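WARN  no MSA supplied for this record, continuing single-sequence
INFO  ligand: flavin-adenine dinucleotide
INFO  echoing inputs
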Amino acid sequence: MRNVARIYSSAAQVAKKPISFEVFPPKGDLTHEVAREMAGHLAELHPDFISVTYSAGGGGNKQATAAIASMIQDDFAVPTVAHLTCAGMDEAAYERAVSELQAFGVHNVLALRGDLPQGETDTQAVHQDGEMSARPFLYARDLTQRLVADGFCVGGAAYPEGHVTCFDDAANICHLKQKQDAGASFFITQLFFDNECFYRFREAALKAGVSAPLACGIMPFLSKAQIQRMVFMCGASLPAPIIKLLARWESDPESLRQAGIEYACNQLVDLANHGVDGLHVYTMNQPDIARAACSALRESGLV
Ligand code: FAD
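INFO  complex generated
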């Protein structure tokens, strides 16, 4: 199955912008069946790849990530990227995760730190008996290094407005460069609503020697509650036009949803016009979002 870094490099040679989608493993007993139906709809749009998230804690379904990525590759011939997080991961858990990815034939991985389990610090893991020990993988760059050594094609997360726990722009870029130095060969950004933030970030990253492709992760806002949650979780700034749209459609949820999708489509078209390396749509498992994004980009003649 295709290596995602090569998808970006061959697209760059012909000035094409790869389009990719993110999905998460559906919850419940019918995870695989629901994912298969959704993947069928997404595959009709011919994305360059689909990435599948990994949920280490809470109600997430981490067991399903590699299986769903494998199913999308095998049944729909669409390349995939399996996300993998290392917070709370010890050596044995790493070995299990790698064996599973290999058994499922998944070659591309998005290596992430993930959110720290309660009580853990950046450097210390907490065990069931309350004992603390050094965490084997402190940051995503450490997981990246191991996965690359184990033969995977590895990507990482990038933060145009800085990670929510990183208060220094220079450190944000430095941590990105560390992931590239550890072997990350492509990056996907955190969602953002203001493209200017991305253009400034791209310039700073290039200046710091980040040469791996930076694909823009775009998520439409669908409701006021959802955008509030996202803004608090990831620290993305809300430009005035979005606040106006939220006020305008406050009592009309369907129009607000459509306005959110339209705003995201306009963002994607502008990004494509500015020659970004790739466009990654956070579909939230809703194929109509992916469909709208592809139509907007194809109508604009940019992909
Ligand atoms: P890192 O790059 O390790 O950064 C974590 C924090 O440590 C940042 O504040 C960073 O600035 C800082 N840092 C990094 N290196 C150093 C260093 N050397 N010294 C000091 N500080 C350092 N989460 C999931 O649970 N599952 C998913 O599937 C998932 N998919 C995602 C996909 C994308 C595209 C993105 C952008 C995020 C995703 N996340 C996912 C969320 C991600 O796991 C969290 O944002 C997490 O808190 C940080 O992950 P990271 O890989 O960026 O970590």
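The mean pLDDT is 94.
INFO  checksum written, moving to next record
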